[in-house]
Amino acid sequence: MRTDVAKSRPKPDEAIIFWLYAAGMPVVEISKALGMAVQTVGTKLRAARDLARSHRIWYVSTETKEHVPEKSGAGMEYLKQLAQEAGLK
C-alpha cells in the first residue's frame, strides 16, 4: 500500500503554527505574528495536531526557558533556523 506523501506531511503554515504553539505561544499571539485570523490559526493548529497524532507525534510543553545560542539572530530568524534544523521548509 502506497502512502500519499502530501497527506503525510503538514503544510508549511500548519507546521509553523504547531511548533509555535508547542513552544508556548498562545493562539492569539500566533495569529498576530503570522497575520492570520485567530480562527484560521485554530483550524490550522487542529489540522496539524490531527496529523501529528496520526503519526504518533506529540510534544511536552514546559515552563523552562530554552538556551538560545549567541549566533541565533532575531526571534523569527531563530524560529526559522529551528524549523530548518527540524527538516521543515
Secondary-structure topology with pairs:
Elements: H1 5-8, H2 12-22, H3 27-34, H4 38-54, H5 75-85
CATH architecture: Orthogonal Bundle
The portion of residues forming beta strands comes to: under 5%
The CATH class turns out to be Mainly Alpha
In total, how many beta strands?
Answer: 0
Order of helical and strand elements: HHHHH
CATH fold annotation: Arc Repressor Mutant, subunit A
**Count of alpha/pi helices:** 5
Largest sheet: none
How would you characterize the overall build of this protein?
- The protein has 89 residues and is mainly α.
- The protein is 57% helix and 0% strand.
- It starts with a helix and ends with a helix.
